[in-house]
Every structure is written in C-alpha cells, then in structure tokens.
C-alpha cells in the first residue's frame, strides 16, 4: 500500500475499534462479502476507490449497492472506507478484508483463538501438497475452492475461521495460500494486542524454550509476542525467527550457506 492508503486504513481501523460494541460476527462476514464484490467488479472498485472523486458521490454508490443488504454497522464502515483517499482502488479490497477479519476477531467468543485455528489450517494445508494445490491454485474456480474449504473445516473450526478461510481461497489476488493464512493470523493477533512471531526450528521446541523466546521477544519489541513454531529439519539446527518485517536467521543452514558464499568469493 502507498502512504495514503496506509493512513486511510489506520483511520478505518480506529473507527472500527471505536464501534466495537456495536459489531457482530455478521458484520465481519458482510465486510468480507463486500471485499469479494469489489474485487470482482472493477467499475465499482474504481468508483469507491477513486482518490479524486467527491466523497458524497462515493457514499451514494455505497448506498445504491449495499444499503438494505448489510447491517447498519457494516454500511457505516463501508462509507468510512469510501470517504477516505486511497493510493489506488485495489487497496479498498485489502482494507475491507482487513476490517472484516478484525471484526471477526473482535466479536469472537471469549477463549476462542482464531489465530491459532488459522495457523493450524495452514499447517494442515502445507503438509498436504494435493490439498495445497486444490485450495491455492490460480486455475481453480473460486466457488469450488470455497466449498472445499467449508467441507474440510465443518465441525473442526469456528464459524469465524471458516468465514476467513473461505474468503481467502476465493480471492487470493496473487497470494499463496500459506501467505494468506499467515497474514490473516497476524491480523487477528494484532487486533488482540499481540505480535505474531514465526519461529522455525529443525526440531520441536519444549515449552520452557518457547516461553523464554516469548519473553525475550516481547521485551525487545515492547509488545506482547505470540510464538508460532514451525518444524523444518532442513535448518539442521538453530532458529529462524520472523516477526513483522524483521528476520533473525540463526539457523545452521544459513550459516553454512554464508560460509559457502565466502569460500566461493
């Protein structure tokens, strides 16, 4: 996103948080539905995301398309998005997706960790090449991929996680399925006041080591950190940590690669 879109998204998130008491899970689903609608209709996306169009005119478009079919809280958030100035129309789809996921996080029942469910789905998909292809292929039909996701998750994941996953596989917009699920988990964690750190290790980490890592990273980033552990034997040893845009690569495989580069130079 460009700077204008980042500012517009931050403002929309502030409005969302201010209205949290009036939100329902239905609003989150409707925002995701709206994101898919704009993604599939370029003229509508351009009308609402036009950076130079009059806000009143854009709000009128929102009313014509969505009034009566979405809850008042969803309509108000759609108008907030339309009122804003976006770097490019495509960013409006990203914004509605973000707001929809955050709404589902806000309205989740106490004790439900949607981010953990999304990470579990990611682990299951990434371990099955056939399933990863079926859900992530750019050649797949959106409705078929959504139906497959619903069948796989029925009775195994919350309705909020089902809504997020079916949305993501329907409109990947050039993103890989693993990236989609991980970024959605990060968004859910962020809405809960947490930063998600992905720690890749050659071996399973015991609870004590995960706890030490969590405390160390939370102290370094001055914000509570949630650890997502991935086991990848190809690392040989050590850890690869990604948190936000930061990467800390202390794996043996990385050190060996660096040594090979030095010897070859």
Automatic annotation (TrEMBL):
Bilayer topology term: Peripheral membrane protein
GO molecular function: proton-transporting ATP synthase activity, rotational mechanism
HAMAP family attached to this UniProt entry: ATP_synth_delta_bact (MF_01416)
GO cellular component: plasma membrane; proton-transporting ATP synthase complex
Job of this protein: This protein is part of the stalk that links CF(0) to CF(1). It either transmits conformational changes from CF(0) to CF(1) or is implicated in proton conduction. F(1)F(0) ATP synthase produces ATP from ADP in the presence of a proton or sodium gradient. F-type ATPases consist of two structural domains, F(1) containing the extramembraneous catalytic core and F(0) containing the membrane proton channel, linked together by a central stalk and a peripheral stalk. During catalysis, ATP synthesis in the catalytic domain of F(1) is coupled via a rotary mechanism of the central stalk subunits to proton translocation.
Protein name in the entry: ATP synthase subunit delta
Pfam short name (any one): OSCP
Classification via InterPro entries: ATPase_OSCP/d_CS, ATPase_OSCP/dsu
Cellular localization per UniProt: Cell membrane; Membrane
Record family assignment: Belongs to the ATPase delta chain family.
Keyword Ion transport on entry: yes
UniProt keywords, alphabetically: ATP synthesis, Cell membrane, CF(1), Hydrogen ion transport, Ion transport, Membrane, Transport
């Amino acid at each position: 996103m460009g700077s204008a879109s980042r500012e517009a998204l931050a403002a929309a998130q502030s409005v969302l948080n201010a209205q949290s008491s009036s939100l329902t899970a239905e609003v989150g689903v409707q925002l995701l539905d709206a994101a898919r609608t704009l993604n599939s209709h370029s003229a509508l996306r351009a009308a609402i995301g036009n950076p130079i169009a009059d806000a009143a005119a854009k709000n009128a478009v929102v009313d014509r398309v969505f009034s009566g079919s979405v809850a008042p809280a969803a309509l108000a958030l759609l108008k907030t998005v339309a009122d804003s100035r976006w770097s490019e129309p495509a960013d409006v789809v990203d914004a509605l997706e973000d707001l929809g996921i955050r709404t589902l996080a806000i309205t989740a029942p106490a004790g439900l960790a949607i981010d953990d469910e999304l990470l579990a789905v990611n682990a299951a998909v990434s371990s099955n090449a056939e399933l990863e292809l079926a859900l992530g292929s750019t050649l797949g039909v959106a409705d078929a991929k959504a139906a497959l996701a619903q069948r796989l998750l029925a009775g195994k994941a919350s309705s909020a996680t089902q809504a997020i996953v079916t949305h993501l596989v329907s409109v990947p917009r050039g993103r890989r399925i693993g990236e989609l699920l991980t970024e959605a988990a990060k968004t859910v964690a962020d809405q809960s006041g947490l930063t998600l750190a992905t720690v890749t290790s050659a071996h399973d980490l015991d609870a004590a080591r995960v706890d030490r890592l969590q405390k160390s990273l939370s102290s370094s980033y001055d914000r509570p950190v949630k650890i997502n552990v991935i086991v990848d034997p190809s690392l040989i040893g050590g850890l690869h940590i990604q948190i936000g845009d930061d990467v800390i690569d202390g794996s043996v495989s990385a050190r060996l690669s660096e040594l090979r580069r030095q010897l070859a130079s």
